Amino acid sequence: MSELASESSPQPSREAPDTPEPATPRRGRPKGSSARSTRTIELTLTVTGTADGDWQAELKQGNTWLNRGLPVSASAVSRAAQELHAELAGLIDAVILAAREQRQARVAALEAELEQARKALAEIDG
Q: Compositional bias (Polar residues) spans (predicted)?
């Protein structure tokens, strides 16, 4: 009778549980992937500007400089930013506008100084 009782009672299974064990990572490319489709090209474009409105671009591929100190116009920077993303364009246009306002203030100050110099010259010539 003890044999019947032991056969009818559920016993824990010695087989592996239904959940799969995590596979150990394999080296190399996974099967079915293509090396050509997974390669990426890293290019870094850096655009810098001064408060005077002078802009320049530098291009780097990995650790190799392709071009450095290439002068670009503020309008070209603005157009490029617009092509990339509207949010970038708004931020960059704000920086360009601030630089433009500074330059306009400098021009106004120089014009006032020039007018004073003309008046002084007119008094000398008198």
A: 1-12
Under 8 Å between Cβ of 56 and 48? yes
pTM: 0.55
Strand partners, 58: 46
CB 92 within 8 A of CB 78: yes
The answer to the question of residue 4 being in a domain is no
**Sequence-ordered list of residues with C-beta below 8 angstroms from that of 54, at least 6 positions apart, any chain:** 71
Distances (CA, A) of 44 to 41, 67, 80, 83, 115: 10, 11, 14, 17, 47
- The set of residues, in sequence order, having a beta carbon less than 8 Å from that of 57 and lying 6+ positions away, is 45, 46, 47, 48, 67, 70, 72
Counted domains in the chain: 1
